[in-house]
Every structure is written in C-alpha cells, then in structure tokens.
C-alpha cells in the first residue's frame, strides 16, 4: 500500500443524522498541499475528523469502509496513536486554547506524546510563526490571528507530518489569511502534508496542489486544483464561489 | 522556587481563613475588616471591592433577617451578635480571597497543586479556563438579546441560559476533541 491517506469506500452517518459521507474513495499522497471545499453541510469537517480516527473513536455513528494513514487502519488504533503524525487545527481557536500560557499550550501535546526538548521545540515553533517571546502570554489575550497561529505552533512543535486545518481562515481578515497561507505553503515546501478546508476558492487556486470538492457527502470533483477549479459550471451548480482564474 | 512561593500563598490563605473562623473577638474582627477594606480600597482593585460589597450586603441582610425572625430560642441581643459575627467572618474571608486572587495568578494556583494527579490538574486548568469564558459568553448573549428588544432577564432567564448552555457545551465538546487529537490518552 502507498504512504499517505487512503479513504477506501468510506461512508459515515452520524447517530443524530447531522452529517454524513457516502462512498468516499480518495488518496491524499504525502507531501501534498490539498484543499477541500464544498457548501455548508457537505461533509468537509467530517472528512477531516476521519483522518486521525476521531471518527469512529470519539464521534459515534455508522462507519463503513476504511481509512488508512500511512498504511495503518484508523479503526484499529486509538486517536493518540495518530496524534503525533496528524496535527488538527479547528475553525475556532477559542475552542482549542485552554492553558494559561502560550508555553503550556504548546507543551500540552509534547507532554502527551512524550517528546523531549520542550523548550527548544517551543522556541522554534514560535519563531516559525513570528511570535517569538510570547511564551508567557495568556493565549486568551491574543488577537484571533495570533491564537490561530498558536494552534499551528502547537502542531509544529510536535513535528507532525500531516497538518489538517478546518476552515482556519473563516474568522481572519484578508492579510492574516494571506500570511497564514504563505506560512502553510512554506511548511509544505519543507515536506509537510497540508490539508485545508476552505470556502474561498481563490486561496485554493493560489496555494494548493490538489482540490477535493464535496457535495452532499459525496466527492463531486477531485484532482489538480487548476483542473478542478476550471469546472466553473459544475462549481456554480453546487454553489461554490468561482475563483478569479488566470488559466 | 516557583512551587514553594505558590504553595506558601495557598497555605497562608488556608491558615488565615481557618484562624478567622475561630477568632471570637468581634472587636478584633471588626478592626481587621476595616484595615482590610482600607488596604484594598487603596489598591487598583477598588472596583472589585465595590462589586464584592454589592454582593456582600444582601447576604448580610439575609443573615440578620434569618437570625432575628427565625431563631426565637435565643435573646434578641444574642441573635444580633451572632448574625454580626457570621457576617463579619464571611466579609473578611471574601475580601482576603479577593486580595489573594488579585496577587496570585491562576497558573500559580495550579502550580501550587503540583502534588495532584495529572488528570485532576487538567481538570483544574479547565475549570479556570471556563470561568471567565462563561462570563464573556453571558455578556455577549445579554448584548445580543438586548439588541433583539429584551428589556430584562429578571422574570425569564431562558434567553440567557439556553444559548449559554449551548455554547458552553459546544466549547466543551470541541475542546475534548482537541485534547484527544493532541495525544491526551488518560
């Protein structure tokens, strides 16, 4: 089997019927910058929750098919097994940050994963996100963009191979969004696999290599970003913003 | 060293509180309350003292009313004295806790409980995380509901409580997912 993330005929229905996926067959190779888009309720977040096993281990429902992360079936191992290799960043950083200082926040994952050189890792991670010297700040007093960056730093400190971001720019202003995407692109160039859920197809067009378009829990389009986003008629039908393409 | 000072502050608070609850000399307690009040009034936490007094006064009233009307087995003077002694202790402990919270950071409090198991310490951190968040969320919800025409929450707290519970539960749920996805496995 190939390294990367494989969705093998995956279907999922939440027990309260809130979200579902149907017949997802997908291969996300290592080292790629992959975008996922779709209208609200199309299953984007559900797809990301399958990557590190939060579904089915934490979120119950009916799961059919298998998800493999570097050839390991996510059903067979606990979430903690995948925590080192998959760094998850949710839409709202306010829901993620709970420690009293930035240092403790980043250190939380390092302690859980029993990684060493905490101080060095924290320093390096903060340097990458341009927030050096913020170790003792209270995360709740930072701006929204800075909070989002701290969540990213927590993932960077644990040196995850896969970074999954669920609508990270939903509450960011334009400049912060551009800064975040530039940072993600540079991480991708250093070998990290980036998977980002995004509504703004202009950013997907500019930064991602591959794009997956979901519609009502199914894959509507997938492939190279330029090719996918040039299917303007189909995108319009689904209700996705047509990017300002320069094809 | 950090652990030592943090623990020292907690121990001081505990010893002071126990001592206050056991001192029987009302004059001494009154003097102590007065000194504490003046001291806090001179610090930047003046606003907090005022707010705390607003909470303490109805409590005092309630204690006096309960003693005067519902404790008929003792003389009137005894009941007044007893109510005063209860109130003055509550007031001193309340003000000293207020002072403690202004000089001790929440991270210091958690450090002081270094001997607790990891799970309990995490629980403590979460509690400290949620307290200000509940207040922030309440303030936001109040603004939203007032902008929708609600004048008071006195008779109907549902417009405040229901969205507040919903938001707090949502936060807790997402926080749980975050913690698990960051390798927490206990």
Automatic annotation (TrEMBL), chain A:
Keyword field contains Cell membrane: yes
Span of the secretion signal?
none
**One GO molecular-function annotation for this sequence?**
ATP binding
Task: List, alphabetically, the GO terms of the cellular component aspect.
Answer: ATP-binding cassette (ABC) transporter complex
Can the keyword Cell membrane be found in this entry's annotation? yes
The domain of life is Bacteria
Residues covered by the ABC transporter domain = 5-241
InterPro entries xrefs: AAA+_ATPase (IPR003593), ABC_transporter-like_ATP-bd (IPR003439), ABC_transporter-like_CS (IPR017871), ABC_transpr_CbiO/EcfA_su (IPR015856), ECF_ABC_transporter_ATP-bd (IPR050095), P-loop_NTPase (IPR027417)
Protein keywords: ATP-binding, Cell membrane, Membrane, Nucleotide-binding, Translocase, Transport
Recorded hits in SMART domains, A to Z, give: AAA
SUPFAM superfamilies from the entry? P-loop containing nucleoside triphosphate hydrolases
Where found in the cell? Cell membrane
Which PROSITE patterns does the UniProt entry name for this protein? ABC_TRANSPORTER_1 (PS00211), ABC_TRANSPORTER_2 (PS50893)
Its chief place of residence is: membrane
Tell me which family the UniProt entry assigns to this protein.
Belongs to the ABC transporter superfamily.
| Record protein name field | Energy-coupling factor ABC transporter ATP-binding protein
Q: What is the organism of origin for this protein?
A: Candidatus Roizmanbacteria bacterium CG23_combo_of_CG06-09_8_20_14_all_35_49
UniProtKB/TrEMBL annotation, chain B:
Q: How does it sit in the membrane?
A: Multi-pass membrane protein
Which top-rank group of organisms is this from?
A: Bacteria
What is the protein's major site of localization?
Answer: membrane
Q: What's in the GO CC field?
A: plasma membrane
Q: Which residues cross the membrane?
A: 27-43, 55-74, 86-116
One Pfam family matching this protein: CbiQ
Asked if the keyword Translocase belongs to this entry, the reply reads: no
Report keywords, A-Z: Membrane, Transmembrane, Transmembrane helix
Q: Which InterPro entries match?
A: ABC/ECF_trnsptr_transmembrane
Name this protein carries in UniProt = Cobalt ABC transporter permease
Source organism phylogeny: Bacteria, Candidatus Roizmaniibacteriota
